[in-house]
Amino acid sequence: xxxxxxxxxxxxxxxxxxxxxxxxxxxxxxxxxxxxxxxxxxxxxxxxxxxxxxxxxxxxxxxxxxxxxxxxxxxxxxxxxxxxxxxxxxxxxxxxxxxxxxxxxxxxxxxxxxxxxxxxxxxxxxxxxxxxxxxxxxxxxxxxxxxxxxxxxxxxxxxxxxxxxxxxxxxxxxxxx
Length: 177
What we know:
Blueprint: E1 11-21, E2 26-31, H1 36-39, E3 45-49, E4 56-64, E5 67-72, H2 78-82, E6 88-92, H3 107-110, E7 114-116, E8 122-132, E9 134-141, E10 146-150, E11 158-160, E12 165-167
Parallel strand pairs: 7-12
Antiparallel strand pairs: 1-2, 1-6, 2-5, 3-4, 3-6, 4-5, 7-8, 8-9, 9-10, 11-12
Main location: cytoplasm
InterPro entries: PRC_barrel-like_sf, PRC_RimM, RimM, RimM_N, RimM_N_sf, Transl_B-barrel_sf
Domain RimM N-terminal: 13-94
């Protein structure tokens, strides 16, 4: 999984700007992509949400411990950097590289798929994908509430992006949680 979904289907979220760092306009970035070196390379142009804050062009990047710091063209003060706080950074879906493994999916490909049991009974729709040590599908249930489904082949044996569904074969007790 390489990027988080966004409300529109033409872009995916690759990061969110956090607090300013220092006094020269650098910003911290909450990375939401598997390939930050590619996505945040100097010269990269990123769409923004809210749209009026961008597009932003990466002037430089560096890692400070585990935190990605970005320099953005035209942002040269702490005050200017503060104005970008909580801005989501997006790239067009068309710019995402093809995945080599046919069993790998981008988050945006999974969100919106119908989740159903092996017998065809509908469970709900995939509302999000969480990456918390293990990958989890967040399924918004038909009868209300959410179900967290470990995204492993033993429990989700079928993913049919073109057909618009995933098959969930839950172990005993999973649906009762």
